[in-house]
Design goal:
The complex is a heterotetramer of chains A (about 200), B (about 650), C (about 100) and D (about 475). By secondary structure, chain A is mainly alpha-helical. In chain A, about 80% of the residues lie in helices and about 0% in strands. In chain B, a hairpin with a 5-residue loop joins strand 3 (about 75) and strand 4 (about 85). By secondary structure, chain B is an all-alpha fold. In chain C, helix 2 (about 30-55) packs antiparallel against helix 3 (about 55-85). Chain C is about 80% helix and about 0% strand. The longest helix of chain C has about 30 residues, at about 55-85. Chain C has helices spanning about 5-25, 30-55, 55-85. Chain C is mainly alpha-helical. Chain C has three helices and no strands. Chain C has one domain (about 5-90): Helix Hairpins, CATH 1.10.287.3510. Chain D is mostly helical. Chain D has helices at about 1-20, 20-45, 70-90, 100-115, 120-130, 130-140, 145-175, 185-190, 195-210, 220-225, 235-240, 245-255, 260-265, 265-285, 290-310, 315-345, 370-385, 390-405, 410-435, 445-465, 465-485, and strands at about 50-55, 60-65. In chain D, strands 1-2 form a two-stranded antiparallel ribbon. In chain D, helix 4 (about 100-115) packs antiparallel against helix 5 (about 120-130). The chains are: A mainly alpha (about 200), B mainly alpha (about 650), C mainly alpha (about 100), D mainly alpha (about 475). Chains in contact: A-B, A-C, A-D, B-C, B-D. At the B-D interface, strand 2, helix 6, helix 7 and helix 26 of B face helix 7, helix 14, helix 16, helix 17 and helix 18 of D.
C-alpha cells in the first residue's frame, strides 16, 4: 500500500508539472517522469511486459520524438494576452468537478472477484501470456494496427515533405491558378456551368 | 343508323359546317359567295325542319335520335343504394314544341341571311359575319333540339358566345367591344342561376333529361294532391326554388327586369344581328325554356306567379323607356324587352301555347321592323337618329308599306298577327289558375296599359321615320331587291301569322296551335271558364287600347310637331330616354364596388401576404445569425464546452447512483 | 494488494489534470502532451480493471492503444510542423481562420 | 413497359446534357414524343398490371407502379403537353440562350409520370419532391429580375408541405402497423383507425396537397412563380402540369382516411369555393398576363379541390377531368403569352432585367393584324372559363353538379366564379386583342400552327366526345366513391 501511495504522489506531481511548466522541454521531461512512474505501477498490477513496453516505446521513442520537435520549432514563449482569459479558472473548476465525480463513481465499483484468485489467471502479465491472447483473441486488431502504423508513417512523411527547389514556382502558380479559375467560373454565368 | 330517326339531328350540323368552312376558307372567298353559302345551308336546315315537322306532327311521343354518346359523368344510386354509373347522353329530341321553334329559327334565320347579303355589302369582315351568323343558328338549333338540360345549356351558352361575337363585330370601336362584353357577362349571370337550377333538379329528380322530368309529373295534376311519382308535391319548396332558378336563368337570356340592361346596348351590333338574335330567336330562348319545362312551372304556383309579375314589370319598364328614345334601333330594342315581358306573362299564366304563339308572331313583325329600320339606315347612309329622318314615305315606298304593316301588327290591330297573340295573352292571364284572387286581374290591367303604350311609341316610331318632311342631309334611295324580298315575306307572315291561334269563341277546335302543342306543352290545370260575352269584352278592350294608343300618339305629334320638342324635354322624357336610370344604378351599385374590391384584394394578395411571409423568413434568419456568434474559432473554447459537458454528465450519473 | 478503486481514482485525477492542462496551455505541443497524459491515465485504468477481472484482454487492449498513440503522435507532430511552415507560430488562438 | 415511360425522359435528359443546339432539341422532343406514344399504347392496350419489387425491404418500401384510369389520363396530358411545349420552344429564337430548359423539362416530366404511377407512399413522396428540383432550376437559371425571391418562396412552401406529408406517411404506416408503405395494404387498415388519429394524418397529407393545389392561404408562391419565369412559358407549362394536389387528394388522402374526409368536408369545401372565387376576382385586376393566368389557374384549382372534397363520384370525376384538361388549355394560354412576347420582340437578352411580364393593355387591337391568332386565343380563353362545347365545361359542370349534392351553399359561392371568370377573361382579351389598333404583330406561321392545332383539337374533341376520357376515370372513381359512401 505504501508503494502505491509513493507512486501515486509521484505520478500526480509529474502530471501537474507537465501542465504548469512554461517551457516545453520541462513539461515534456515531467511527462516522461509520470510515464515511468506508471510503468512501475503496471508492475504492481501484474503487467510486467506492458511495463517494459511502456518504458521502451512510450517513454523512449514517443517522448524523444516530442523533445525533438520541441527543439526543432523552439517557438518563443507565449507572447501577447490570452484572448480567452476566462478559460483558465473555468477549466480548473471543470477539472476538479470531473475528477471528484469520476473518483466518486470509482469508489462505487464492487470488485467482481477477490484479487488473489483474479491475479492468479494473469500469470503476472508475462510476455508469453500477453502474446498468447494477442495472437488468438486479438489477431484482427493486431493486424489492423500494423497497417495503421504503416499509414501513420506515410502520413507523417507526406505532411512535412519539402518539395525540391525547382517546382517551388510550379506549386505556387498552380495553386494560384486553380483558385481564380474556379472563382471566374461561378460568378460569370451559372447557366454555362449547368449547360 | 336508321335514317328517319337521325335526319332531324342533321339540322344543327349544317350551319356548324358552314361556320367551319367560312372560318377556315372565308378569307379567300369573293364578296357574295360566303353569304350565298351561309343562306343556302340555313335554307337546307329549313327544309329539314319542315320535313321534321311533317314527320313529328302525327306522333304523340318525342322523336329521339339514335346517334348518341356519353357526354357527362353521372352516378345514380339504384334501388339498393348501390352507386351505378349512368352517364348523361348527348342526344337530340324533336317534338311539336321544338319543331315549331326550329321552323321559326331556320325560317326567319334564312330571310335575315338573305337580307344581310345586301346589308353587309362592302364590309371588310363579310365572310366572318356570315360564319358567326351560321354559328348562331347552329347553337340556337342545339338549344331547341336538346333532350336534356346540359345539352340545352350548350346551346344556351353557345348563343351567348355568338351574340358576344356579333355584337362586337366591329371590334375596333371600344363601345362595341364593351357592349359585347357586357352582354356576355350579364348572360353569364343568368347562366349561373340556370346551372344552380339544373343541380337542384338533379338533386330532386336524379335525372337531367327534360322529358323524364316532365313525365315524372304525370299529365293530370290536381292542385295540392301529391301525384308525382318522385314524391315531389305540387308546389313543394325544392320545386319552387328550382323553378325560380330557371326563371332567373331565362331572365338573363331574355333580358327580363333584373338582367335587362344588356339588350339596348346590344344594338351596337349590325342590324341583321339585332333582327335575328335580339328580336326573333335568342331572346325568346328564355320563353322556350319555361315552356319546355312546363311540368316544373305547372306544379310551382309561386314561381309561376313570379314569372308573371316579372313579365308584367318588364313590359311596363320596356314600354316606358321606349317612348322617348331617339335612336331608331333603341326604340325597337326596348319594344322587344316589353314584348318579351308579354311572353313571360303568357308562360307564367300557365298557357304555354300562348307564349309560343306570341314568340312566333313577335318574331315575324319584330324581325320585319328591325329589317325595315336596317334598310332605312342603309338608305340614309348609316344615320340612326330618328330626329334626322322623316318623310321617307315617298323615297322608300316598299320599306314604308312593310313598316306600316309591322307597326299595325305590333300595335295589335284586328286582322294582323299581333292582335290575336296579344289578345290570347290578355285572356289567358285574366283566367290563369296562378292568378290568385288579385294578381291575375292586376297583371291584365298592366297588360292593357302596355298595349296602349306600345301602340303609342310604335306610331311615334313610324311617323318620325316616314311622315313629315325629310330632316336629314343624305339622299335616301330604296334598297335593292335582295333586301326588299325578305321584307315582303315577313310582312305577309305578319298578316297571316295570327290565324294559327284563333280565339276560342270562334269555335271549339278552330285554334290549331293549342291542339298541336297539347302533349308537348300542355296548359296548367285550372283555367276558369269565362262566358262568351266576357271574351268579347276582353277583345274589344284590347282593340280599343291599340287604336287609342295610335290616336293619342297622332294627337301628341300633331301638337308638338315632328321633332316633338314638347314633352320629351320634360323630366319624364329624360327619365324615359335614360331607361329609368336602371343602367346607371347597376354601374354604381354593382360594377364599381366589385372593381374596387378586386383591386384591393389584388394589392392585399401581392404585397400584404408577401410582407407577412417575408417577416417570418427574416425572423428565422436572425435567429440563425445570433447562434453563429458562438462559433468563435478558438479551439479551446470548443474544448471547454466538451469538458464542461462531460463533467456535468458524469456528475449527474454519480449523484443519481448516490441519491 | 491495493484495491482497484484506488487505481481508478488515481487515473481519474491524472485524467482531469490532463484535461485542465489541455485547456490552459496555449502552445499546440504542450496541449498535445496533455492529451498523451490523459491517454496514459486511461491505460492505467484499463490495466487496473484487467487485474480486477483477471483477464489479459484489457492488457492486450492497452498494448494496441500504445501503438495507436505512437501513430497519433507521429501524425499530430507532422501536422504541427506543417502548420508551422505556413505561419511561424504554434499559438492555437492565432490559428482561428475557421470562424463561424 | 411502365418504367420505360417513366424513365425515358430522364435518360434522354442526361444524354441531352452532352449535346448542343439542334441536336439537343431534337433528342428531347423525341424523348417526350416517345413517352407519349408509349403511354398511348398503354391506354389502347389497357395494360394496368401493378409492377411491384422491393426497393428498401427493411423499411417495407416497395417500388410499385401502375397506370390505372386517372393516372393514365394525367400522364397522357403531361407527356403530350411537354412534347408540344418543347417543339414550341425549339421554334423560338431565344432557345439558344436557355438551352438548359430541355433537360430540365424532361427531368420534370419523369417526376410527374412517377407521381402519377407511384402506388407506394414513399415512392410517391420521392417523386413529389424530386419534381420540385428541376422546376426550381428553371426558375432560378432563366427567371426574371427578382426570381430568387420567388424561388425561395416556392421552395419553402413546397418542402414544408412535403415534410408534413412525410411525417404523416410514416405515422400512417406505424399506426396501421401494415408491413409496407404500399397503398393497397394501407388502404384496408387505415379506415379502421379512430377519427382523431385519422384527422391528424389526413391533415398532414392535405397540408402538402393544399400547397401544391394551391388553396387559399398557401397560394402565395404561385403568382410570383409564374410572373418571374422565363418569358417563353415552358417553365409555366411544366408548373401547370405540376399542380398534382388534386390527384394526390384523390389517390391517397381521401381513400385512406374516409372518416376524417367526411368530418372535415364542409370546411374544405368552403375553403375551395372561396379560393375559386378569390382567384377569379383578383385576376380581374391583375396587371400583367402571367399573374392573371396564375390567378386563373388558382381559380381552376379551387374548383378541382371543391370537386374532390365533395366526396361525390360526379364531383370527383369532374375534378379529375378538369385537372387533366386544364393542363392542356391553361398551358396553351401560357404559350400564347410567350408567342405574344416574342412577337412584340421584347428583347430577350436583358431577360433578367425586365421585371414585368407582358402588361395587359400595353398593346391593343392586335386582332386587326393577326385575326387567326386572335381567334385561337379566344377559343382557349373560352375553354378556360368553361364555355360548353370545350373541355373546360365538362369538368366544371360535373364538379358543380357533384359538389351541389354534398353542400349547396359552398357550390353557390363557387358558381359565382363562373361570372367572375367571364369578366376577367373577356376584359383581358378585349384589352389586348380588340379595341383600336396600337401595334401590329405578324400572323401565326406554319410552325406556330403545328404547335396550336393539336391543343385545339384535344380541347374541342374532349369537349364534345368526352366519353372516352370518362370511361378511363369511371372504375377508380366508383371504387373511391363507394368507400366514401358519397351521397
Amino acid at each position: 500500500m505504501v508503494v502505491f501511495v509513493i507512486l501515486a504522489v509521484l505520478a500526480i506531481a509529474g502530471a501537474i508539472g507537465t501542465i504548469s511548466f512554461k517551457s516545453g522541454i520541462y513539461s515534456a521531461l515531467s511527462l516522461v517522469g509520470t510515464l515511468l512512474t506508471l510503468a512501475m505501477m503496471y508492475v504492481t498490477l501484474h503487467a510486467q511486459f506492458l511495463a517494459s513496453v511502456q518504458v521502451m516505446v512510450y517513454a523512449g521513442a514517443i517522448m524523444v520524438l516530442f523533445l525533438f520537435v520541441i527543439m526543432l520549432l523552439n517557438e518563443s514563449q507565449m507572447s501577447g494576452a490570452d484572448p480567452l482569459p476566462w478559460v483558465q479558472p473555468v477549466a480548473i473548476a471543470g477539472g476538479i468537478v470531473l475528477a471528484a465525480a469520476l473518483a466518486f463513481t470509482a469508489f462505487q465499483f464492487k470488485a467482481p472477484k477477490n484479487l488473489e484468485t483474479a491475479t492468479a489467471a494473469l500469470q503476472g502479465g508475462t510476455p508469453g501470456a500477453i502474446g498468447e491472447t494477442l495472437f488468438t483473441k486479438f489477431l484482427l486488431p493486431f493486424e489492423a494496427v500494423s497497417i495503421l502504423l504503416l499509414i501513420a508513417a506515410i502520413g507523417a512523411v507526406s505532411l512535412v515533405h519539402r518539395q525540391p527547389a525547382h517546382n517551388e514556382a510550379l506549386e505556387t502558380t498552380s495553386e494560384h491558378a486553380t483558385d481564380n479559375a474556379y472563382s471566374d467560373e461561378t460568378s460569370s454565368n451559372p447557366a454555362k456551368v449547368v449547360a | 343508323m336508321d335514317f328517319n330517326h337521325n335526319l332531324f339531328a342533321l339540322m344543327p350540323v349544317l350551319p356548324l359546317l358552314g361556320w367551319l368552312v367560312l372560318i377556315v376558307w372565308g378569307k379567300n372567298m369573293k364578296e357574295p359567295t360566303p353569304g350565298i353559302l351561309a343562306s343556302s345551308l340555313v335554307f337546307l336546315s329549313f327544309v329539314l325542319a319542315v320535313v321534321g315537322f311533317v314527320q313529328v306532327s302525327p306522333m304523340k311521343e318525342p322523336l329521339l335520335n339514335t346517334l348518341r354518346w356519353d357526354f357527362l359523368p353521372m352516378w345514380v344510386s339504384d334501388a339498393k343504394g348501390v352507386l351505378v354509373s349512368k352517364p348523361l347522353q348527348f342526344g337530340f329530341a324533336l317534338d311539336h314544341l321544338s319543331s315549331i321553334m326550329t321552323l321559326i329559327i331556320t325560317g326567319i334565320g334564312f330571310l335575315i341571311h338573305v337580307f344581310a347579303i345586301g346589308y353587309m355589302h362592302g364590309d371588310k369582315g363579310f365572310s366572318r359575319f356570315f360564319a358567326y351568323l351560321n354559328f348562331f343558328i347552329a347553337m340556337m338549333l342545339i338549344l331547341v333540339l336538346a333532350d336534356s338540360y346540359p345539352v340545352l345549356f350548350i346551346g344556351w351558352e353557345g348563343v351567348g358566345v355568338a351574340s358576344y361575337l356579333l355584337i362586337g363585330f366591329w371590334y375596333t370601336d371600344v363601345k362595341n367591344s364593351d357592349a359585347a362584353r357586357k352582354a356576355f357577362i350579364v348572360n353569364r349571370i343568368g347562366d349561373a342561376f340556370l346551372m344552380l337550377g339544373m343541380f337542384l333538379l338533379f338533386m330532386t329528380f336524379h335525372t337531367l333529361n327534360i322529358h323524364e322530368i316532365n313525365s315524372s309529373f304525370g299529365s293530370v295534376v290536381i292542385p295540392n294532391v301529391t301525384t308525382i311519382s318522385t314524391g315531389i308535391a305540387f308546389g313543394s319548396p325544392p320545386l319552387e326554388l328550382a323553378a325560380l332558378f330557371l326563371l332567373l336563368g331565362a331572365a338573363g337570356k331574355s333580358a327580363q327586369l333584373p338582367l335587362s340592361t344588356w339588350l339596348p346596348d346590344a344594338m351596337a351590333g349590325p342590324t341583321p344581328v339585332s333582327a335575328l338574335i335580339h328580336a326573333a330567336t335568342m331572346v325568346t330562348a328564355g320563353v322556350y325554356l319555361v315552356a319546355r319545362s312546363h311540368g316544373i312551372f305547372a306544379n310551382a304556383p309561386g314561381a309561376s306567379s313570379w314569372v308573371m309579375w316579372i313579365g308584367a314589370l318588364t313590359a311596363v319598364y320596356g314600354a316606358l323607356s321606349a317612348i322617348a328614345q331617339t335612336d331608331i334601333k333603341k326604340i325597337l330594342a326596348y319594344s322587344t324587352v316589353s314584348q318579351l315581358g308579354y311572353m313571360f306573362i303568357a308562360v307564367g299564366s300557365g298557357a304555354y301555347w300562348v307564349g309560343i304563339f306570341h314568340v312566333a308572331t313577335h318574331a315575324f313583325f319584330k324581325a320585319l321592323l328591325f329589317l325595315s329600320s336596317g334598310s332605312v339606315i342603309h338608305a340614309v347612309g348609316g344615320e340612326q337618329d330618328v330626329r334626322q329622318m322623316g318623310g321617307l314615305r315617298e323615297k322608300l315606298p316598299t320599306t314604308h308599306i312593310v313598316s306600316l304593316i309591322g307597326t299595325l301588327a305590333i300595335a295589335g290591330i284586328i286582322p294582323l298577327a299581333g292582335f290575336f297573340s296579344k289578345d290570347a295573352i290578355l285572356s289567358s292571364v285574366f283566367t290563369s289558375p296562378f292568378g290568385g284572387d288579385f294578381s291575375g286581374y292586376a297583371i291584365w290591367a298592366i297588360g292593357l296599359i302596355v298595349a296602349f303604350l306600345t301602340a303609342g311609341y310604335m306610331w311615334r316610331w313610324y311617323s318620325l321615320v316616314f311622315l313629315g318632311t325629310y330632316r336629314g342631309h343624305a339622299h335616301p334611295h330604296e334598297s335593292s331587291s335582295v333586301m326588299t324580298v325578305p321584307l315582303w315575306i315577313l310582312a305577309a307572315l305578319s298578316v297571316v301569322g295570327g290565324f294559327i291561334g284563333l280565339p276560342h269563341f270562334l269555335g271549339k277546335n278552330v285554334n290549331w296551335l293549342e291542339g298541336f302543342l297539347e302533349e308537348a306543352a300542355p296548359n296548367a290545370l285550372g283555367f276558369h271558364e269565362i262566358p262568351l260575352w266576357g271574351e268579347l269584352i276582353l277583345i274589344a278592350l284590347a282593340l280599343a287600347a291599340a287604336v287609342g294608343g295610335i290616336l293619342f300618339s297622332r294627337w301628341i305629334i300633331a301638337r308638338d310637331g315632328v321633332n316633338s320638342a314638347g314633352w320629351i324635354a320634360t323630366r319624364f322624357g329624360n327619365a324615359s330616354r335614360k331607361a329609368l336610370f336602371v343602367d346607371q344604378t347597376y354601374d354604381i351599385a354593382v360594377s364599381a364596388p366589385a372593381k374596387f374590391i378586386s383591386e384591393q384584394l389584388e394589392l392585399a394578395d401581392t404585397h400584404g401576404l408577401d410582407r407577412g411571409i417575408g417577416a417570418l423568413a427574416n425572423g428565422t434568419a436572425e435567429a440563425g445569425a445570433s447562434l453563429s456568434v458562438w462559433q468563435s474559432g478558438f479551439v479551446r473554447a470548443y474544448a471547454i464546452a466538451v469538458l464542461l459537458g462531460t463533467a456535468i454528465l458524469v456528475g449527474y450519473l454519480a449523484l443519481r447512483s448516490f441519491a | 494488494m491495493v484495491e482497484t478503486q484506488y487505481y481508478i481514482a488515481l487515473a481519474a485525477i491524472l485524467f482531469s489534470i490532463g484535461a485542465v492542462g489541455f485547456l490552459t496551455r496555449r502552445s499546440a505541443i504542450q496541449m498535445f502532451l496533455c492529451v498523451e497524459l490523459m491517454l496514459n491515465a486511461a491505460n492505467l485504468a484499463l490495466v487496473a480493471f484487467s487485474r480486477a477481472w483477471g483477464d489479459l484482454l484489457a492488457q492486450s487492449a492497452v498494448f494496441i492503444i500504445l501503438t495507436l498513440a505512437a501513430a497519433e503522435v507521429a501524425i499530430g507532430l507532422g501536422i504541427i510542423v506543417a502548420i508551422f511552415k505556413k505561419r511561424p507560430t504554434t499559438n492555437v488562438d492565432v490559428l482561428s481562420s475557421l470562424k463561424g | 413497359m411502365i418504367h420505360l415511360i417513366i424513365f425515358i425522359p430522364l435518360l434522354f435528359a442526361l444524354i441531352g446534357l452532352f449535346l448542343r443546339g439542334q441536336a439537343r432539341a431534337s433528342i428531347s422532343i423525341f424523348a417526350a414524343l416517345a413517352s407519349f406514344a408509349l403511354t398511348a399504347v398503354v391506354w389502347i392496350a389497357k395494360i394496368d398490371t401493378v409492377y411491384r419489387t422491393p426497393w428498401i425491404p427493411g423499411a417495407g418500401i416497395f417500388y410499385s407502379v401502375t397506370f390505372d384510369g386517372p393516372s393514365l389520363l394525367l400522364a397522357l396530358v403531361a407527356t403530350l403537353m411537354t412534347s408540344i411545349t418543347l417543339i414550341y420552344f425549339s421554334n423560338r429564337k431565344d432557345s439558344q440562350q436557355a438551352e438548359g430548359m430541355y433537360p430540365l423539362a424532361l427531368a420534370m416530366l419523369t417526376g410527374l409520370l412517377g407521381i402519377f404511377a407511384a402506388r407506394d407512399l414513399i415512392l410517391f413522396y420521392v417523386f413529389f419532391e424530386a419534381t420540385l428540383v428541376p422546376s426550381l432550376f428553371m426558375l432560378g437559371l432563366y427567371g426574371r429580375k427578382n426570381r430568387v425571391r420567388a424561388l425561395t418562396k416556392m421552395a419553402l412552401y413546397t418542402i414544408f408541405g412535403g415534410l408534413l406529408m412525410l411525417v404523416s406517411i410514416i405515422a400512417t404506416k406505424l399506426y396501421s402497423n401494415s408491413p409496407s408503405f404500399d397503398f393497397l395494404e394501407l388502404f384496408g387498415r387505415t379506415s379502421q383507425l379512430d377519427l382523431e388519429t385519422q384527422t391528424w394524418l389526413f391533415l398532414g397529407f392535405v397540408a402538402a396537397f393544399a400547397v401544391k393545389l394551391p388553396l387559399f392561404p398557401l397560394h402565395n408562391w404561385l403568382p410570383d412563380f409564374h410572373a418571374e419565369n422565363h418569358s417563353s412559358g415552358v417553365a409555366d407549362v411544366m408548373g401547370t402540369l405540376y399542380k398534382v394536389g388534386g390527384y394526390g387528394l384523390f389517390r391517397f388522402a381521401l381513400p385512406l382516411f374516409p372518416a376524417a374526409a367526411q368530418n372535415l368536408q364542409w370546411v374544405f369545401m368552403f375553403l375551395a369555393a372561396f379560393t375559386a372565387l378569390y382567384g377569379a376576382w383578383i385576376a380581374f385586376s391583375s396587371k400583367d398576363f402571367k399573374r392573371l393566368l396564375a390567378y386563373a389557374g388558382l381559380s381552376h384549382m379551387g374548383l378541382v379541390a371543391l370537386g374532390m372534397f365533395s366526396l361525390n363520384p360526379i364531383g370527383m370525376a369532374g375534378a379529375l377531368f378538369l385537372l387533366a384538361f386544364q393542363g392542356v388549355y391553361s398551358s396553351a394560354l401560357f404559350l400564347i403569352v410567350g408567342m405574344l412576347e416574342e412577337r412584340l420582340n421584347k428583347d430577350v437578352q436583358n431577360e433578367k432585367t425586365t421585371s414585368q411580364a407582358l402588361e395587359i393593355g400595353h398593346v391593343r387591337g392586335l386582332a386587326a393584324s393577326a385575326p387567326a391568332f386572335a381567334g385561337v386565343a379566344l377559343v382557349l380563353w373560352f375553354a378556360s372559363i368553361g364555355v360548353p362545347g370545350l373541355a373546360g365545361f365538362i369538368g366544371e359542370f360535373s364538379v358543380f353538379l357533384g359538389a351541389y349534392q354534398a353542400n349547396p351553399w359552398a357550390t353557390a359561392l363557387a358558381v359565382s366564379t363562373v361570372i367572375a371568370s367571364a369578366a376577367f377573361a373577356l376584359t383581358a382579351y378585349q384589352r389586348t386583342w380588340l379595341e383600336e389598333t396600337t401595334t401590329t404583330i405578324p400572323e401565326l406561321n406554319a410552325r406556330d400552327w403545328f404547335v396550336l392545332v393539336p391543343i385545339l383539337a384535344v380541347t374541342v374533341f374532349f369537349g364534345v366526345f368526352s366519353g372516352s376520357a370518362l370511361k378511363l376515370l369511371e372504375p377508380s372513381v366508383q371504387a373511391v366513391a363507394g368507400l366514401l359512401g358519397g351521397k
